């Protein structure tokens, strides 16, 4: 019999061991977990994470897994709540391909499933490497966004395999988990169209919950639909189209996808990061920001489709819409010289001078820039001043891109900028120190409680 894709994915997940991972994968896994914790700390008091935490706590108890911000819940609900915290600021890592993704979203499932079975730090790293590999390879294989599905659909698959690995499921059980997760985890692209809601920052968290829940059911004996990918009315026919994946993992660093992901330096949709970087470069050249006549952003097709064409992007009313608006993020970077949580507060979103300049900003596709994607995210910002001066900056690899990675010092600046205001510098340093030793930590779940306020 020909091996189907579900069997192949499960075999990879269950056979991968910590000792198989190149050192760079281990190092980069820890850096991305540090980044995920920083993003979660920065979102502790935001409305959607608070809603998620309250809902999860209602199915809590002495067992289960810890929640960022305090409390406990069943592993699947902990994956959801913690996933909302990691994702909500739109500041966690990114992978760009036929389908874009934020693979550090997988960490919420890893932490929740890992704590339930008492997994050590080596097991966390292994499960995360598996999840990153599967999600990113699927993103390379097919664009589901083009077919109306949200990228988080792939997350149900990657998180179910991570949970199956941590739960030590048999091959048959893991195939059932993948079948359950894959048939129930398809998400509509509506999540990221028009005026965006809180759900934009929660959609992958739901996928993580779905993946863990599917593995929990399979562990107890539930069977799932098969063959998931090749079957009639299956995933390939209904969602992705044909999927061809290369060999997963391998002995060298180049064989693994985790180090090829990019860490964001500012909390905005990733395709805008290079436009923001260009705005930062131009700002010191403008002596009077009130003398800006107009702004033109030349970009690539994917950026136009995701963050540069909906009318709502020119007058965002929610944080979720604003951080997915190429014109807004570029203008606020130019005016404020920073992009942080402050730039998405209601009073900033409604500022007349800011909105006036956004209204004088145009977004166009440049075929040459489209050709440079996804190896880079090239954006060119052209600022016209009232005296006729034209200033221009083009950036393809912003700070944090895998071709321009953040140094540990830059990552620490981002981390402390998010964690210190929420929890204090000493607590932030304790989190940094503990997660930096993840591979030798026998009880890594204890680090989650370090994000409890007070």
TrEMBL record:
<dbReference type="InterPro" id="IPR036148">
    <property type="entry name" value="MmgE/PrpD_sf"/>
</dbReference>
<comment type="similarity">
    <text>Belongs to the PrpD family.</text>
</comment>
<dbReference type="InterPro" id="IPR045336">
    <property type="entry name" value="MmgE_PrpD_N"/>
</dbReference>
<dbReference type="InterPro" id="IPR042183">
    <property type="entry name" value="MmgE/PrpD_sf_1"/>
</dbReference>
<dbReference type="Pfam" id="PF03972">
    <property type="entry name" value="MmgE_PrpD_N"/>
</dbReference>
<feature type="domain" description="MmgE/PrpD C-terminal">
    <location>
        <begin position="267"/>
        <end position="432"/>
    </location>
</feature>
<dbReference type="InterPro" id="IPR042188">
    <property type="entry name" value="MmgE/PrpD_sf_2"/>
</dbReference>
<dbReference type="InterPro" id="IPR005656">
    <property type="entry name" value="MmgE_PrpD"/>
</dbReference>
<feature type="domain" description="MmgE/PrpD N-terminal">
    <location>
        <begin position="8"/>
        <end position="242"/>
    </location>
</feature>
<dbReference type="GO" id="GO:0016829">
    <property type="term" value="F:lyase activity"/>
</dbReference>
<dbReference type="Pfam" id="PF19305">
    <property type="entry name" value="MmgE_PrpD_C"/>
</dbReference>
<protein>
    <submittedName>
        <fullName>Uncharacterized protein involved in propionate catabolism</fullName>
    </submittedName>
</protein>
<dbReference type="InterPro" id="IPR045337">
    <property type="entry name" value="MmgE_PrpD_C"/>
</dbReference>
């Amino acid at each position: 019999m020909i091996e189907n894709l579900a069997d192949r994915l499960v075999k990879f997940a269950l056979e991968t061991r910590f000792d198989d991972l190149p050192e760079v994968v281990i190092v980069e896994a820890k850096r991305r977990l540090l980044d995920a914790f920083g993003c979660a700390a920065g979102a502790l008091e935001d409305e959607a994470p608070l809603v998620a935490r309250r809902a999860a706590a209602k199915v809590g108890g002495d067992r289960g897994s810890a929640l960022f911000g305090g409390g406990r819940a069943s592993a699947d609900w902990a994956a959801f709540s913690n996933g909302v915290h990691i994702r909500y600021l739109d500041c966690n890592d990114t992978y760009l391909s036929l389908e874009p993704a934020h693979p550090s979203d997988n960490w919420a499932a890893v932490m929740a499933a890992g704590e339930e079975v008492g997994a050590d730090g080596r097991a966390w790293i292994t499960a995360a490497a598996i999840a990153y590999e599967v999600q990113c390879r699927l993103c390379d294989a097919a664009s589901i966004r083009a077919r109306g599905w949200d990228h988080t659909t792939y997350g149900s698959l990657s998180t179910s395999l991570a949970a199956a690995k941590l739960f030590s499921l048999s091959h048959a059980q893991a195939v059932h988990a993948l079948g359950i997760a894959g048939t129930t985890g398809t998400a509509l692209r509506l999540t990221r169209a028009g005026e965006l809601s809180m759900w934009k920052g929660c959609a992958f968290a739901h996928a993580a919950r779905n993946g863990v829940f599917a593995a929990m059911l399979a562990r107890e004996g539930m069977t799932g639909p098969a063959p998931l990918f090749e079957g009639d009315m299956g995933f390939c026919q209904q969602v992705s189209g044909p999927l061809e994946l290369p060999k997963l993992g391998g002995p060298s660093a180049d064989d693994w996808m985790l180090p090829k992901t990019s860490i964001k330096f500012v909390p905005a949709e990733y395709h805008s990061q290079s436009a923001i970087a260009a705005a930062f470069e131009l700002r010191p050249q403008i002596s009077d920001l009130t003398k800006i006549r107009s702004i033109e952003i030349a970009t690539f097709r994917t950026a136009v489709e995701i963050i540069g064409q909906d009318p709502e992007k020119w007058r965002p009313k929610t944080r979720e819409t604003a951080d997915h608006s190429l014109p807004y993020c570029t203008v606020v970077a130019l005016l404020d010289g920073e992009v942080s949580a402050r730039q998405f507060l209601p009073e900033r979103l409604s500022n007349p001078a800011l909105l006036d300049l956004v209204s004088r900003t145009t977004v166009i596709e440049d075929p040459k820039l489209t050709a440079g994607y996804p190896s880079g995210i090239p954006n060119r910002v052209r600022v016209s001043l009232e005296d006729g001066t034209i200033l221009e900056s083009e950036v393809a690899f912003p700070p944090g891109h895998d071709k321009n990675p953040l140094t540990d010092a830059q990552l620490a600046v981002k981390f402390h900028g998010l964690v210190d205001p929420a929890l204090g510098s000493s607590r932030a340093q304790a989190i940094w120190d503990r997660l930096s030793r993840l591979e030798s930590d026998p009880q890594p779940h204890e680090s989650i409680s370090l994000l409890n306020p007070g």
